[in-house]
Records
---
Amino acid sequence: MSADASNLFGAVEAGGTKFVLAIGSGHDEIVAQTQIPTTTRDETLQRAIEWFQGQGGIAALGIASFGPVDLDPASPAWGFITDTPKPGWSQTDVAVRLGAALGCPVGLDTDVNGAAIGEYQHGAAKGCDVAIYVTVGTGIGGGATIGGETVKGSRHPEMGHVMLRRHPQDLDFAGACPVHGDCLEGLASGPAIKARWGTSLSDLAPDHVAHQIIADYLAQFCQTLIALYSPQRIILGGGSCRQPGCST
Amino acid sequence: MIRAQVATYAGSYFGVHADKIIVSSGLGTRSGIVGAFELAKKAVNVED
């Protein structure tokens, strides 16, 4: 490792459609950044490894990954994406493989926990003892920080799969979640919206009832989070929360 | 719309100010990569 490498860190935001890769001394001093499509696991991880190797050495790598992810440091499967519904990615040794190839320590958390840490350290949750980051898009997920540490527990929260009271104008839809049907993700994610109304929320008129229905489900979810965590901040990210008819 | 509905659901009982609690991202689409840098620093015990 070169002298400069001791001051440089690698960062990976590993998503289901793309990997964002960055290198720098911190989030505000990024010296290089790129993104690659998430294809097969071997191709994607090899491309990530080659990109980092081409940038020179790094002192450590941080990975915020789609999941589920084994985050238990005592587990033999630590660092693995486990039983994901994404085809071909179950039991993928994402953290171990990248760390071994780049010869550096790896810090790992879920994608939403990673975003929650980012918001706690430098964004809308700065100074908040309890904060929750929620993303609403193709899927729905949430990560919580308490005292600056992410909540992991026996595995990690799967906030998008809470069950909700059905909106009275949305009683016939079975839901789009392959596991639960009409959990929050099954009712309010992008695929769930498209399954009901044939398009995304952004393509529907602001006065379309879909906005009321989706806003109601997200409000129920926020109320649940408030009741459970008493957070100082709930940060809503993702495309659905930015639509004019359904905005925060 | 979400904040208003949360106020309806939670406000009267919890004394919650939804306008203060429920906010948009301060980092936008960068929150994940910013968090990943923090994870890297934590792996080698480097603090900001």
---
Amino acid sequence: MRARAAVIGRVRDDARYRILKSGQTGLRRPGRGHHGRDRAPPGPAAPRRPARGGASPPVRDHEALFRRLIGSPNLGSREPIWRYYDTEVQGRMVIRAGRPTPPVMAPLAGSPLGCALSVGGNPWYVAADPVLGLGALGVPKRSGTWSASARGPQPSPTASISETPRTRKSSTSSFGRSAGSGTRRALSARRALEGPPIPFVSGNVSFYNESSTGRADRALSRSSRGSVSSTTTRWRQPRAIKRAGSVIVLTGPRESRLGASQLRHALTGRPAAISRRSISIASGGASTPCSRRFGEDSSSRVTTSLEGGLAVAALEMALGGFASQGLGLQIPISGLGESAPEVRLYWNPRVPPRGFQRAAHAAPRPSSGRRRSTRR
Amino acid sequence: MIGRTLPEPRFRLLDGGLALVDADLADLAAIQGGAIRAYVE
């Protein structure tokens, strides 16, 4: 047997411990014993990570970043999902998948009862703060009983949250009491996750492995019940652009901060870095996409989606006009204030849903003490 | 903010005189449509 030897390291004189990979520092910290008992003199400080909620790095090539964003699973087209998978449920779908509105199922033949299933929402809100994120998704306004479970493919669990029909008792209780247990479990599940969440859910477990990035491993779903007739009339259909030269008007509030967004993750690599005040939600969003006529000259009214901000919302509208009429779209952002272009392009408007404030204050905080039950 | 639809299939995001994004919509549609791929056994 031939002996082999190789130099794998060198003794240093600066009391530092380094692990290198291809010339890059993988681990750098002051040298210390196995249990940290023999402390070494402090060395030069490692570069600090940007504070949560801090400014994002500037964007040097907007078009390259834009192409990268729309090519991500979070902002990409969902068409392959409903094209390749069976979305029919026993022939009882009133509104089928692929429409701009959430699919609506009528589970009982002859009954007006309908169940709307939304697989959208902005998971970045939930990633940043599950309690407020669920509130931003419009959960508390129904104040139903929520349950959460951690399941899914390994190694990452999937936080699946579903709503059960509201009862008289739960409708009068606070969001905190009705959803506390589920929210806490969702919070625990979220803490175990790493990487960005994916805003869709599928009944097919195999889909989790089909993302181009290989990270479609978690989802947040929501459902609600109601009358089919009221459901179909309440959710309006968006209108695609239909003719050249039409005016596009953006309405709604604006903010000077980026907030939770795909862009922040693309720039910083972190799922979300937001403060509670910067949590925002669109008035329509993925669950209720809406656009109304605005004057005689306009063909559509831009409503930003929950994810991607104005840039992606405008693209989705443009793609509709391109597919149907071969038209294009031009959006100037110079009139949207003095904030950075990436903020103007990718921020989400702040329109708290009904009940959001109540949920934010009533939702329980994880505590170490055991809560005493008031039920007798 | 006022935008306009265009007769040609282009998608533009403008900031003053600077075109932040000026791309063909067919290209963008292909990128967005290919973000999620079906699993092929």
---
Amino acid sequence: MHYLQFCAMNAIKRFYNEHPLRTILALGLFFRLIAVVFPKDSECMTIIFW
Amino acid sequence: MHDDHFLVIEAAQSWADGYDYNNWLPWNNSGKPSGHSWFYVGLHFFLLKALNFIGLDDPQGKMVVVRFLHAIYSMGVIVFGYRIARRLGSEKDAIRVAWLLALMWFIPSSSVRNLVEWVCVVPLLLSSLYLIKAEQEGNRQRHFILSGVFAGIAMSIRFQSLFFLAGTGLYLLYRGKIKGGLLLATGFVMAFFITQGADLIFYHRPFVEVTEYIQYNLLNATTYFDRPWYQYLLTVGGMLIPPVSIFLIIGYCKAWKKALVIILPSLVFFLFHSWFPNKQERFILPFIPFFIIAGTIGWGMIREGKLMSKAELFSWRFFWVLNTAGLLVLSTTYSKRSMTEAMYYLYQQPDFNNFIMEVSHRDSPQWPPQFYSGKWNQAFCIYKEYPTERFITYIRQHPSEYPHYILFFQEDHVWNRIAKFKKVTGAELTFVHKATPSWFDALLHWLNPRNKNEPVYIFKIAEK
């Protein structure tokens, strides 16, 4: 298991070093897609403090 | 009072269904413009019309499509933010900008909403990118014109984008690029005229909506909020999580010469909003990406060739820990859940014809998003000025309009209100569903009671 984790981390690091922007875009898209799944009030950002 | 959190989709969907829910169309409002740009709402009208056409009727399903398209579109913020930073600073700066624009805690969540303050950011960034290209690639006319075109599109989405354009004008004047400025203005006028074309169609005059919008805001500058000038300094300093936000403020000041092309427009925008009394957090959103880009470039200039100190390293770690927590929370929240779920519950009922909103303890009701009910008929609202007695007088004269459902909002004396309704109308009520707020709604209510945290009790009405 640890070996697999090590390999996965190395692969991610290598990919990031070679394609930093693509990695960031993939992560950015991932969190946006999570936000797509959960309904939001549509227009306004909910007023948090005032 | 309609909840303007759902303004865009409600207007667009009602038009797609052949109604005019907000009475924006001139023949429903005595020919007076409503003061809303039709460009962004119009795009939603075509999208929702297309979804109707292919048979996607479910409101929640439609909103998944709307949010998905916004998610893809908002990737432009990362790409164009990166490109601007790459042109004005180093690759390292650009990568840091991309990280922040991709994963800043409130950005993914803001990106999937019908939030005009965020939707206008992509054309604003493109406008800046083309202006930088024009400067760096021999003042090519096409780039100036394209910069103006994207500024015009941004202004059609959010009228206040005009202040970015004013800053750009100042910048070009400072640089002595009069011809470039004229080309940019030409592109801007063309794009704004075309994207505001609905004014010509409906009112036979150009720019009536923007004129009405300006007049309304000048007359109502303090109607909603009247906040001090330093409010947005605190907002930006807090939203970007100190002490990293302090680094960015220092960087923003440091980069004034190197990144003046984005600093001047964003600063004019920031100063205007700081001066204008009506301040809400979302109004300042278009400034944030520009602040991040210029701040990161400036901080990179300060840090150039130096090793990161322990304190700075700790600050960035602190930032990412807090940011990740906020990102996970905000991306997975279901806001305004009870109002949405109550309407969606009605949508799912085969016998749903109309409903009564019961808020008899309130002076001014806040209307739930009827978009999710799938119907646009005029629902009844029982509140202080329109008590149950008036409702029953009306309905006795129009018995065919008797709604099948009544919704009691908020816990306040709810069982007394239910008993009173039964007594006055003589109707039998059967409890069918309780729509509860999300935990995030509860948290927001706790942070600021202005945010409503109201369960909705839905009863089926059986007339006697």
